[in-house]
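worker-3 :: picked Mevalonate kinase
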Amino acid sequence: MVLSLLSQRQEKLFFMENILLFMEIEIDTPDKFHFKIPSLDLEYVFSIQVLEKYLLEKSPVLNVDVSTYNWECPNLIDYNVQITSINQALHSIFKSITNGHNNPGVNALKVLFYFLSGIISSTNVKLNPLCIYVETDLEMGAGTGSSASFCVALVATIIQYLKLRSVDLNNVSRNGFKFFSWTKQEIQHKKTFSQRQLENISNWAYSGEKTFHGMPSGLDNTICTYGNIVKFRKNEKPTVLKLSNTLFDVLLINTRVSRETSKLVAHVANRREIFPALVNHILEAMEDLTNRAADTITKIDNCSSANRLNYFHDLETLVQMNHGLLCALGVSHQKLEEVVMVLEKHGIKGKLTGAGGGGFAIALLPAGYDAGEVIQKLKELDFGVICTRLGGDGVKVE
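worker-3 :: tokens ->
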């Protein structure tokens, strides 16, 4: 799960949340490919022959000659044309399927087809009957990174399947495609992802995210892949900051208020157009605040226990200041302010997270803090509450 600790429009710090999305693969189910997501009430069953006919026997639609492509090159696929081809395949297989952009079940199926056609179809590996089962703690469509988590877990599952089926092949690629083989390290460590594989997972997940969001930032797929903390600035490569000694206990509070990110972004843009100097100063303050927070988190992770409390208080202050700056941009909501006030009465600092305008708030818990009373109060006010930790692992095989 993806959460912004210090969310703003220019530079951001993001944590990996230990709320999980699990994907299981069962190989050798009888002559069928099963795809199940119970949280979406979704279950599709295809014959392997149908998948081969409409997907796997065709080369992905490329911007380059096929000889320069192997499964590690999702950036060489003509995304729009490939998705059009996948839509046609879906309609051929399921005559009644709808093509709505906001239908999460259909989008999940499109991403599955996109990954299978882009990865498996370029290799010498034949798809065996199998079942992919998705289970998640995440609330879908609530701004918590569920689509990125899904894309990362799904493509990691397919890549792991590919590796297990092809470690003995000198050239994994089909005839005519660019050569590919696994390294000795990747062959020896079949249940771990190498740095190269993690890069591939993140890149493919970014492509899959386009199906859900049109033009994703590249942040959510990065943190779901690598975990820990990601420092992100638009148009720059995200930086992963690994925590070695610290996981942050937090409350994640669901206001149950839906929000539209595009409208909130437009609202800030309008405010900036009317008050350019003021809004620019707010954004500059957020950038300074974010850099200070990154330094403070690093100090908390590396310092002695005697100094940790002082640095944690600094981080609490930065969280409080960030929420105030976001309020000045007009992206808070009455319910978010109610949450922050309840937290304050219990000695906890909190802020909105994500796009704002509803959605979720996040609260940092001091070490050893008993959150039972504040959780009970928030639930009495009909807020959803999850107690979890930030700074966890990214994608992995278990």
